[in-house]
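We emphasize that the prediction below concerns an isolated chain of 287 residues; any contacts that depend on oligomerization or on bound cofactors are therefore not represented. The input was used exactly as deposited, without trimming of termini.
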Amino acid sequence: MNTRILLLALLIGLAGTARGQVSGVTAELVLEQDKYLPGEDLQLKVSIANRSGQPLTLGQDDAWIAFVIAGEGNTFVSKLAPMPVRDPFTLLSGQTAARAFNPTPYFSFRHPGRYSIGATIKLSQWAQEITCRPVEFTVADATALPDLANLQIGLPPPPGQTNSRPEIRRYSLLKVSYLNELKLYFRLTDASGYTLRVFPLARMLSFSEPEAQIDRSNNLHVLFQVGARSFGYWTISPEGRLLVRQTYDYTQTRPKLRVGDDGQVIVAGGVRRIIGSDEPVPGPQSR
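Result of the prediction step, given as a token string:
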């Protein structure tokens, strides 16, 4: 099917149902939230239910599902690269499965505005297609914390290279108001300002003043209040990888970041509370 014809079908050719249905198979698109920052991973799930009375096999090639994204005014959003979707799976009759996708690296929708994403699923064994109703989302800018924006670092040179000019990257912490909730986001950009990674850290209290320090390996350490007497602590690498996520409780002393003479950063004060969402995952002896 021609991409523009598919786009038209997705945007204006659908009835008021949230699901597509063919031969007893239904498919639905689900977004975990409807507001994202430019460059943030789009947390999209495709839920497929098989009530056809026979097994259904999907994901055997790169064409079993096709996504289309449109901006305001139904303008077509261009693709940046082919999106990997091949992952064979079989649904027995009566089974439902969800598959997660992240279209962000493969489509050009980084400008603020309202967007919609739809999908068509090919049921090759019956020569049929399911057209899922599009779901909408907003890409919006955030408010950068003035003292914690564009913290510049340099990447170490590749192995075997010396005296090369450092590749510059910048850390920023951003505030986002979403559904009457304030969240703190991390953003990593290159020297030109292009977003390499952006993701939420946690809900923050309106009066919380986040702390940030950079250690001798140029990892970013972030500490801020997330509850009445609790603080969240994160460590993030220059590649944008989450290295550490921990929780500290306010006791006789308030948790604070401290930089040692060796350039290492630690949390001083308070007491750590082990929880299941910690990174790295706590071992049996830590519990």
